[in-house]
């Protein structure tokens, strides 16, 4: 069963360009990790509430930054061991540069993919 991490980054507004450039550089490094099955970085740009959902309306584009810009890194590995090795490699290379861009520490959600 595939092992997945979803990581939420809240980036300082003044560090958005630096973070995106850093993640683009890290992408090549991350894609080389043994056992990697999936790698996606998503920038939050829309919001939706229950009234919109009930009405079948599309989400609304976010037009202003309040405290931070949110990104979600979704990556998946064939085993938890390959994931652990990739985390170590990321920690030894890009971690500190990434953390300097963050408004708050990142959140990690780990588990096995069900479907």
H/E series? EHEEHEEHHE
Unreliable runs, pLDDT <50, ≥5 residues?
A: none
Distance between the termini: 10 Å
Portion in beta strands: 25-35%
**Total number of helical segments?**
4
Radius of gyration, in angstroms, nearest whole number: 16 Å
- Structural class comes to alpha+beta
Total count of strands:
6
- Estimate the global geometry from the Cα principal axes: globular
Strand order of the largest sheet: 2-5-1-6
* pLDDT averaged residue by residue: 96
Describe the main β-sheet briefly. Answer: 4 strands, antiparallel
Helical percentage: 25-40%
Lay out the secondary structure.
Blueprint: E1 3-11, H1 16-31, E2 36-43, E3 46-47, H2 50-55, E4 60-61, E5 69-77, H3 80-93, H4 95-99, E6 107-112
Antiparallel strand pairs: 1-5, 1-6, 2-5, 3-4
Index terms:
single chain, 115 residues, alpha+beta, 4-stranded antiparallel β-sheet, two-stranded antiparallel ribbon, 4 helices, globular
Concise synopsis of the structure shown:
This protein has 115 residues and is α+β, with helices and mostly antiparallel strands. The chain is 36% helix and 31% strand. The strands form two sheets. It has a four-stranded antiparallel β-sheet with strand order 2-5-1-6. Strands 3-4 form a two-stranded antiparallel sheet.
């Amino acid at each position: 069963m595939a092992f997945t991490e979803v990581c939420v980054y809240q980036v300082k507004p003044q560090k958005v360009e630096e973070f995106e450039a850093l993640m683009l550089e890290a992408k090549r490094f991350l894609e080389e990790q043994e056992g990697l099955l999936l790698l996606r970085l998503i920038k939050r740009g829309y919001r939706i509430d229950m009234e919109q959902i009930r009405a079948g309306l599309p989400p609304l584009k976010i037009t202003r930054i309040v405290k931070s810009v949110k990104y979600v890194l979704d990556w998946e590995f064939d085993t938890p061991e390959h994931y652990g090795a990739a985390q170590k490699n990321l920690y030894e290379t890009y971690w500190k540069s990434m953390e300097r861009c963050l408004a708050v520490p990142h959140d990690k959600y780990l588990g096995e993919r069900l479907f």
